[in-house]
UniProtKB/TrEMBL annotation:
KW Iron-sulfur (keyword) present: no
Ranges where the record places region Disordered: 232-257
ABC transporter domain location: 4-217
EC number: 3.6.3.-
Top-level taxon: Bacteria
Gene3D superfamilies attached to this UniProt entry: P-loop containing nucleotide triphosphate hydrolases (3.40.50.300)
Keywords: ATP-binding, Cell membrane, Hydrolase, Membrane, Nucleotide-binding, Translocase, Transport
Molecular function terms from GO: ATP binding; ATP hydrolysis activity
Enzyme class name: hydrolase
Composition-biased stretches (Low complexity): 237-251
Name the record gives this protein: Sulfonate transport system ATP-binding protein
InterPro entries: AAA+_ATPase (IPR003593), ABC_transporter-like_ATP-bd (IPR003439), ABC_transporter-like_CS (IPR017871), ABC_transporter_ATP-bind (IPR050166), P-loop_NTPase (IPR027417)
Pfam families recorded: ABC_tran
Amino acid sequence: MTAVRIEGLRKAFGAKTVLDGIDLEIRRGEFFALLGPSGTGKTTLLRILAGLELPDAGTVLAPPRRTTVYQEPRLVQARRVLANVTLGLPRSAGDAGLAALAEVGLEGYGTAWPATLSGGEAQRVALARALVRDPELLLLDEPFAALDALTRLQMQEMVAELCARHRPAVVLVTHDVDEAVRLADRVVVLREGSFAVEQPIDLPAPRDRDDPAFIAHRSLLLSHLGVTPGSGVTPRSGVTAGSGVTAGSAGEYRHTP
Ligand SMILES: Nc1ncnc2c1ncn2[C@@H]1O[C@H](COP(=O)(O)OP(=O)(O)OP(=O)(O)O)[C@@H](O)[C@H]1O
């Protein structure tokens, strides 16, 4: 069943065309990742799917039950954790809110204040706030980018499990090639307003970064992102090959300080 359908999408800001001729179909339960250099319109596409931005041309069909998790948790500091999770929902949503907190490993945190949480915990609250709305479409705008490398890996694992259980259609915007290959059923590279490459990732879960097939996917995507093997650095776009890792020679990666 199709969850999202985009046809002939075009979006410009003033004289600058950001997205041009985008066609996209995402199935229910599919995990779709969007990679691309900085400023190529990834967030704009996500905002259009969220209904926060209107296209200039084309059609966009997206389910009404959709929710976004951003890079920063965006919690209301004056409300306790459970109230943040159920913000805007009827009082009867309290139990579902507690269940969502338990699902993200935050049982017993309902009465805590946001200021007392670590960055990873706060981001898990944001995830619970999304889950409790039972989204048909989950929009993830670099949700792990501000986390330390270890927390990021744990969060990726958690999101993979939650999405496998709840089966929303997911659109993940990321700069992290490994994250995309680890999580997605399909990865698209956005360049100069349109899709430069579309790559299905048909690897079984859990995915191992050292698996030759994983490395092959990573190398191909990096080449489409303009990362030249052996450069030892990421391009100006800020694209990374993994958590705290930059591309070295083909298939080899080194940690950055
Ligand atoms: N409201 C706006 N008004 C004018 N220009 C905008 C607006 N929103 C985005 N843009 C421009 O559109 C282009 C695409 O922005 P967008 O945030 O979608 O890129 P991105 O691929 O998500 O970038 P990044 O990876 O750096 O987050 C940029 O040049 C940006 O300056």
